[in-house]
Design goal:
With 558 residues, this protein is an alpha/beta fold. The chain has 17 helices and 27 strands. The strands form 6 sheets. Strands 2-1-11-10-12-13-14-15-16 form a 9-stranded mixed β-sheet, sandwiched between helices. A 5-stranded parallel β-sheet has the order 4-3-5-6-7, sandwiched between helices.
């Protein structure tokens, strides 16, 4: 049994949430580098300790930390031979290929800046990222028109990218695994100007762009340390266990759940790299590989309970968690009925690590994201910057001056104006609204911009969506406000129906009455529109602004 948490925190064990909240503290090393100080350190102290278990529907691979050290050293030498150096930006569109983890560790060793991105990027997305981040190299899978799109943008901009392909060979691209084989398994930790510092940029993420163009979120080499509470005390990963987070490597959720905090905590990562999601296959892999802890967004949990998963043996899974959007209580109850496991919710951002969570000492409460992290002093503030009382809604704000902290962005890269918009008066403003109940649990209310103001009431979209989705006809739902002369705004539900249901006036009335009985009657959707699909970003977030803008345009044309 070996884990390195004790190298980076004042205490490892706590007897209660209150003890954890009061006494948890990170020990910040000088010039921390995750690749050398975690991955390579594990390789030195236990050559058989497992790091990664990977499978798809055709092949499987596993890597101990010792093997990962050697192959990441080969990869770092390979990257350097191509001209990739400290502070160069490298975009990775690798889906869930194991080359992602190898590349991340190698880039960290060099001090190059990783930019994980989804393989679903369109040509204009690629153009935007390459020009704004000044990307030097691409490491990608061969997926649809992804590689030709990179080449097209490269030609248009008149630049020459370093292009590396993982998996299937592609003419004009350098093959990943075949190329690294000839390089040395030794890689000396850089010193002097080539060494990384705590404030060196580790990773850049582009926001999902729910409104306006995506922004670049800059995390430093301290970022991995901020995920110790995420993994150890929320996901409840165990030393020498096996953890799975269902997330594409293009999303921030992947580094939340499939690398940093988990490896520091001593657990191995399990990855199922599927072509098309299949809930039954995922469950069978989790059970057959004896996964001990499991995290997935609410969308996955909704899919799983619709599958025939009754009768499966979930006894190896100790803890199940979720984040990304609020989890409807009906989904949580059904999942517990089937598996015996209560899903623990949490909240954070691509800009942060876990900020609020149902930590291991806390009894889960339906439709609550839990209690605040010990990493930061969280305050709920009103529009005037005043603290709100228990039971009142306020914006989640972290009481910290601008700086470099484990688990929080350093800034929006090359965008000081946007940074100053969210970080002022020694507070980082999350832009999300919650309320705290008398037991200290936080309940998510909505993005500040998405809150609906109707007849003097302030209505959060998520609580109404949860009520709508508890009706058996409803598969997907987005709640927005539409302008109304009398009430200011009306609550509108944009709904995708389950198979077997057809739009009708009778169904509208039925859903409205259902919502009135499920939540406060004034919150029911006075306007309902049935659609085939709801507009979402490529990361799966609802484009509420697009729905609102389309409704405004419709009203103007009437």
């Amino acid at each position: 049994m070996t884990h390195l948490i004790g190298d980076f925190v004042e205490r490892v064990e706590y007897n209660s949430y209150e003890d954890f909240k009061k006494n948890f503290k990170i020990k910040i090393p000088e010039n921390f580098n995750f690749a050398f100080d975690v991955v390579d350190k594990y390789a030195e102290i236990d050559e058989n300790k497992m790091a990664l278990v990977w499978t798809n529907d055709e092949e499987s691979h596993s890597f101990t930390f010792s093997e990962l050290k050697k192959i990441s050293n080969q990869t770092a030498n390979f990257f350097k031979s191509l001209g990739i150096k400290k502070e160069d930006k490298v975009i990775l569109t690798l889906k869930n290929r194991y080359e992602f983890w190898i590349s991340m560790v190698a880039l960290h060793k060099i001090g190059a800046i990783a930019i994980p991105a989804t393989h679903m990027l369109k040509r204009h997305d690629i153009h935007y990222r390459i020009t704004n981040a000044e990307i030097k190299a691409v490491i990608s899978v061969k997926e649809d028109v992804l590689l030709p799109n990179y080449e097209s943008v490269e030609e248009e901009l008149g630049i020459e990218l370093i292009k590396i392909v993982a998996g299937d060979y592609e003419e004009g691209w350098i093959p990943f695994m075949d190329s690294i084989a000839e390089f040395s398994e030794e890689f000396e930790r850089p010193t002097g100007e080539e060494a990384t510092r705590n404030d060196s940029t580790l990773i850049l993420y582009f926001t999902s762009g729910t409104s306006g163009e995506p922004k670049m979120i800059e995390h430093t080499h301290l970022y991995p340390l901020g995920h110790i509470p995420t993994a150890k005390y929320w996901q409840n990963v165990v030393d020498d266990g096996l953890h799975h987070t269902a997330a594409d490597t293009g999303w921030g959720k992947a580094v939340w759940g499939n690398i940093y905090g988990q490896w520091i905590s001593g657990t191995a990562i399990f990855i199922y790299d599927y072509v098309r999601f299949n809930g039954i296959k995922l469950i069978e892999h989790l059970i057959n590989h004896k996964v001990t802890t499991f995290c997935a967004p609410p969308t996955i949990h909704r899919m799983l309970i619709k599958e025939n998963i009754e009768g499966y043996d979930f006894s190896n899974i100790q803890t199940v968690t979720t984040a990304g959007e609020p989890l409807p209580g009906s989904v949580s109850d059904k999942f517990k009925e089937i598996t015996g496991l209560r899903i623990r919710e949490g909240f954070g951002q691509t800009e942060s690590a876990l900020l609020i969570g149902t930590y291991i000492w806390i009894e889960p409460k339906l439709e609550s994201v839990g209690k605040p992290t010990p990493l930061f002093d969280i305050e709920l503030l009103d529009n005037d910057g005043n603290l709100v009382d228990v039971g009142h809604r306020g914006e989640i704000c972290l009481k910290v001056p601008q700086g470099n902290y484990p688990g929080l962005l350093k800034r929006y890269y090359k965008n000081p104006e946007k940074t100053d918009e969210i970080w002022y008066d020694d507070h980082y403003h999350c832009g999300d609204t919650v309320w705290e109940d008398e037991d200290g649990y936080f309940h998510f209310y909505g993005r500040t911009d998405d809150i609906i103001k109707s007849s003097g009431y302030r209505i959060g979209p998520y609580e109404v969506e949860s009520a709508v989705l508890s009706h058996p006809a409803c598969s997907h739902c987005a709640i927005t406000g539409v302008p109304d002369e009398l009430r200011g705004q009306l609550v509108k539900a944009t709904i995708v129906l389950n198979k077997g249901y057809e739009p009708s006036d009778e169904l509208i009335k039925e859903i409205q009455n259902h919502v009135k009985q499920t939540t406060a009657p004034y919150k029911y959707p006075r306007v309902i529109e049935f659609v085939d699909e709801i507009p979402e970003t490529i990361s799966g977030k609802i484009k509420r602004a697009e729905i609102r803008n389309n409704d405004i345009k419709k009203a103007q044309n009437e």
